[in-house]
């Protein structure tokens, strides 16, 4: 299992069951640094589960995942994988940003407090430095004037932009997005996609689960089509989206396009 | 009340043309405005619905209330002069203080243990869950008064309490009668009883917080304890507080049960005084007014604490 040195994320033969339901049936995937990978596929195909295994929010049953050359959630000794303790897993997660479909901002904290919470409590950054960095991030997502607002006072699009800023505050090596625009009103989708596109141009490594095919075509280096817990097809957007080889990919695309 | 004078207006009759309305029936006002015809006025006056029965109920209630107040003032049986003499008497004030202490200790210890029990019940260990569950089951089943008497008579069960290695040699030994004096037996009893209820309230509050919250905190790598203290508990407080306030208020009044252990709290002291002078009613009023007064203070406190934890909530 020597990870190729040029992979930021390497996923090998990952299996995952919920009870008797096999959600991931052997996933293999590699993401190079600076690349944007867009994952598409029907509902229930295991996209969220796959994303959640990458930062160990779900444990895998079989296989392994490495990020930036380090195994996630396990330590290897010989041919055994030892599960890491929670504190070590938490430390690994600070290098992996996760943006949820439903934002999950902390409603009782202001926008600024939401963003500085992890840098201060997980990385031990001084509060002052964390605030300065948070303000820069808010400026980047165009919400500096909302620093003192509470999440409930923001629109869905603004909340998701704050959630992205919150994930960026840890300066992660990798960003994971789980349907970041699916909970938004149609007119708010654009502002969130613009922020993600901006990050993509900046060279952040990202895996994005989305149903926005137009976004995938514009931003993705690789498009991955998943169905029933397997990667059915992957490649550049021009191939997978415009000239799919697999019948299932074609059937799915004809429904969403 | 006439049921026939007005044509019934069918709320489901939405479309502009209403076949059931005869030619003589006046069109409902809203349709009139929609057409912009007829009244020719943009501002139609709104006449609120009348509530004759509500006025009747108000009148009846007012009469009963006036009678009650009149009785309070004019009936000599209340003996307000006796009430005034004892309301701030030093023995009573001291008893109020004891009642407050019992409440504070019972609440603090009860909720401290309750929080531990709540997280035991939420833990992934089946053993810890079962122990907490068993505790809650037992202490909710035993009437408080029975439990208090047990503690009070602990000395008969165990004459000595020994601190040392479990089942092994002991280092210190205490005479239980000295260790568990009447007041500490009361505090212990109240706290153990309270803990069972507090545990369920805290657990309910934690479960009411969206799972996505601790998940987002975990995804950000925020340390476990910090997740609880900073993210989950403050949000859980919103549903914990109203129930906790109920519990504290009922514990406050529940301290009167402790009078069976001859502890000089408010209710016991009042009984002692009327046992001496026979003025039962005014002295019961002394206790009542103190209970009401202090419960009111607690309710006001509750209001401000709840407002603090409502930060960020938009209704
Ligand atoms: N925690 C869970 N427990 C049980 N079943 C789950 C859990 N999470 C997801 N599933 C199931 O796994 C399947 C894949 O889910 P998911 O990864 O969310 O799919 P997708 O994101 O592609 O829609 C679904 O059938 C879902 O119901
Ligand atoms: Mg999903």
TrEMBL record, chain B:
<dbReference type="GO" id="GO:0022857">
    <property type="term" value="F:transmembrane transporter activity"/>
</dbReference>
<comment type="similarity">
    <text>Belongs to the binding-protein-dependent transport system permease family.</text>
</comment>
<keyword id="KW-0812">Transmembrane</keyword>
<feature type="domain" description="ABC transmembrane type-1">
    <location>
        <begin position="96"/>
        <end position="302"/>
    </location>
</feature>
<dbReference type="InterPro" id="IPR043429">
    <property type="entry name" value="ArtM/GltK/GlnP/TcyL/YhdX-like"/>
</dbReference>
<dbReference type="GO" id="GO:0043190">
    <property type="term" value="C:ATP-binding cassette (ABC) transporter complex"/>
</dbReference>
<dbReference type="Pfam" id="PF00528">
    <property type="entry name" value="BPD_transp_1"/>
</dbReference>
<feature type="transmembrane region" description="Helical">
    <location>
        <begin position="134"/>
        <end position="158"/>
    </location>
</feature>
<feature type="transmembrane region" description="Helical">
    <location>
        <begin position="55"/>
        <end position="75"/>
    </location>
</feature>
<feature type="transmembrane region" description="Helical">
    <location>
        <begin position="248"/>
        <end position="268"/>
    </location>
</feature>
<feature type="region of interest" description="Disordered">
    <location>
        <begin position="1"/>
        <end position="36"/>
    </location>
</feature>
<dbReference type="InterPro" id="IPR010065">
    <property type="entry name" value="AA_ABC_transptr_permease_3TM"/>
</dbReference>
<feature type="transmembrane region" description="Helical">
    <location>
        <begin position="170"/>
        <end position="192"/>
    </location>
</feature>
<keyword id="KW-0472">Membrane</keyword>
<keyword id="KW-1133">Transmembrane helix</keyword>
<keyword id="KW-0029">Amino-acid transport</keyword>
<feature type="transmembrane region" description="Helical">
    <location>
        <begin position="95"/>
        <end position="122"/>
    </location>
</feature>
<keyword id="KW-0813">Transport</keyword>
<feature type="compositionally biased region" description="Pro residues">
    <location>
        <begin position="8"/>
        <end position="29"/>
    </location>
</feature>
<protein>
    <submittedName>
        <fullName>Amino acid ABC transporter permease</fullName>
    </submittedName>
</protein>
<dbReference type="InterPro" id="IPR000515">
    <property type="entry name" value="MetI-like"/>
</dbReference>
<keyword id="KW-1003">Cell membrane</keyword>
<feature type="transmembrane region" description="Helical">
    <location>
        <begin position="280"/>
        <end position="301"/>
    </location>
</feature>
<dbReference type="InterPro" id="IPR035906">
    <property type="entry name" value="MetI-like_sf"/>
</dbReference>
<dbReference type="GO" id="GO:0006865">
    <property type="term" value="P:amino acid transport"/>
</dbReference>
């Amino acid at each position: 299992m020597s990870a190729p040195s040029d992979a930021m994320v390497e996923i090998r033969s990952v299996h995952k069951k919920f009870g008797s339901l096999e959600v991931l049936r052997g996933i293999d995937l590699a993401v190079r640094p600076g690349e944007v990978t867009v994952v598409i596929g029907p509902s229930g195909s295991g996209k969220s589960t796959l994303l959640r295994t990458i930062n160990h929010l779900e444990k895998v049953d079989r296989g392994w995942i490495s990020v930036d050359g380090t195994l996630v959630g396990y330590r290897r000794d010989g041919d055994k994988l030892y599960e890491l303790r929670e504190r070590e897993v938490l430390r690994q997660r600070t290098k992996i940003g996760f943006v949820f479909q439903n934002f999950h901002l902390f409603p009782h904290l202001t926008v600024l407090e939401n963003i500085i919470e992890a840098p201060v409590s997980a990385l031990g950054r001084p509060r002052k430095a964390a605030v300065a960095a948070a303000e820069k991030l808010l400026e980047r997502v165009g919400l500096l004037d909302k620093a003192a607002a509470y999440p409930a006072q923001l629109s869905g699009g603004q909340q998701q932009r704050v959630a992205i800023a919150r994930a960026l505050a840890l300066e992660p090596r990798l960003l994971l997005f789980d349907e970041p625009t699916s909970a938004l009103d149609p007119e708010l989708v654009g502002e969130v996609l613009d922020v993600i596109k901006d990050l993509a141009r900046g060279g952040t490594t990202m895996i994005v689960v989305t149903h926005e095919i137009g976004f995938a075509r514009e931003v993705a280096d690789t498009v991955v089509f998943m169905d029933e817990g397997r990667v059915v097809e992957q490649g550049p957007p021009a191939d997978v989206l415009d000239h799919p080889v697999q019948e299932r990919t074609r059937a799915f695309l004809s429904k969403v396009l | 009340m006439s049921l026939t004078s007005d044509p019934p207006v069918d709320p489901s009759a939405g479309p502009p043309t209403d076949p059931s309305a005869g030619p003589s029936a006046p069109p409902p006002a809203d349709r009139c405005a929609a057409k912009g015809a007829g009244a020719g006025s943009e501002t139609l006056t709104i006449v609120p619905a009348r509530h004759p029965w509500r006025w009747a109920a108000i009148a009846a209630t007012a009469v009963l209330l006036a009678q009650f107040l009149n009785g309070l003032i004019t009936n000599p049986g209340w003996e307000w002069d006796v009430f005034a003499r004892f309301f701030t008497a030093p023995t009573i004030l001291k008893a109020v203080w004891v009642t407050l202490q019992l409440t504070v200790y019972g609440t603090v210890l009860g909720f401290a243990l309750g929080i531990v029990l709540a997280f035991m019940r939420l833990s992934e260990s089946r053993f810890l869950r079962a122990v907490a569950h068993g505790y809650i089951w037992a202490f909710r089943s035993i009437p408080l008064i029975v439990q208090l008497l047990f503690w009070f008579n602990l000395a008969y069960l165990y004459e000595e309490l020994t601190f040392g290695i479990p089942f092994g040699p002991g280092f210190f030994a205490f005479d239980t009668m000295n260790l568990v004096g009447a007041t500490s037996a009361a505090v212990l009893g109240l706290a153990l009883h309270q803990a069972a209820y507090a545990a369920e309230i805290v657990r309910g509050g934690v479960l009411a917080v969206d799972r996505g919250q601790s998940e987002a905190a975990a995804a950000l790598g925020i340390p476990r304890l910090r997740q609880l203290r900073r993210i989950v508990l403050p949000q859980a407080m919103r549903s914990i507080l109203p129930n906790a306030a109920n519990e504290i208020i009922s514990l406050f009044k529940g301290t009167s049960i402790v009078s069976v252990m001859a502890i000089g709290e408010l209710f016991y002291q009042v009984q002692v005084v009327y046992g001496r002078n026979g003025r039962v009613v005014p002295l019961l009023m002394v206790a009542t007014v103190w209970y009401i007064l202090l419960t009111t203070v607690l309710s006001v406190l509750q209001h401000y604490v709840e407002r603090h934890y409502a930060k960020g909530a938009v209704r």
